[in-house]
């Protein structure tokens, strides 16, 4: 958790012509591939939500499939990750989401523990020949004197990484692993933080 004392939320656009999942599916004869989402998972792998169209989705080999999105022509597939994903993950960052735009441009949203790590990611991507555009960068800053600094930082990271979305973009176990703390510790920090927020919200009724 100490490495996440000054975290940032970053959104970048990268020209990525070498997405491993796109290459793998193209080699199998799939066309009209669209990356709907990209997320990092345990073990350094990267999970892609690929929209292939209903007919193509039926033809995906079972060994590649992690799960299907009910009612949609999309499927979650997992791979070791391409150069862009692995560069982001190499600096203790984690992917929140990714989405293909046009002309091999993919938007990546990720959390990074320090500003130096962010700069290193951008430098490494550019050295590798990628065109990178930074669309958004936001730093954690404590807002109000209700939560402790650690509690507020945890809630900020959870919010930015999609923990409170429905469906969740990251679970308690995954978030704890990214922050290098136990699930029980993370759960207790959030429980105490939630109680503080509720006590502050309902302070006139207590």
What report would you give on this structure?
This protein is an alpha+beta fold. It has 2 domains: about 140 residues, no CATH class; about 60 residues, Arc Repressor Mutant, subunit A. The chain has 7 helices and 8 strands. Strands 6-7-1-8 form a 4-stranded antiparallel beta sheet. It has a 4-stranded antiparallel beta sheet with strand order 2-3-5-4. β6 and β7 form a beta hairpin. The model has no long low-confidence stretch (mean pLDDT about 85).
Set down the secondary structure blueprint:
Layout: E1 8-15, H1 20-27, E2 34-40, E3 46-51, H2 54-57, E4 65-68, E5 74-79, H3 83-89, E6 94-100, E7 105-112, H4 115-127, E8 132-139, H5 149-160, H6 172-178, H7 183-201
Antiparallel strand pairs: 1-7, 1-8, 2-3, 3-5, 4-5, 6-7
Name the overall outline: globular
End-to-end distance: 33 Å
C-alpha-based Rg, rounded: 19 Å
Strand ordering within the main sheet = 6-7-1-8
Oligomeric state of this protein: single chain
Output the structural class.
Answer: alpha+beta
- Number of helices, counting only DSSP H or I runs of 4 residues or more: 7
Largest β sheet strand count, sense and barrel closure? 4 strands, antiparallel
- Beta-strand proportion: 25-35%
Taken in chain order, the helices and strands follow as EHEEHEEHEEHEHHH
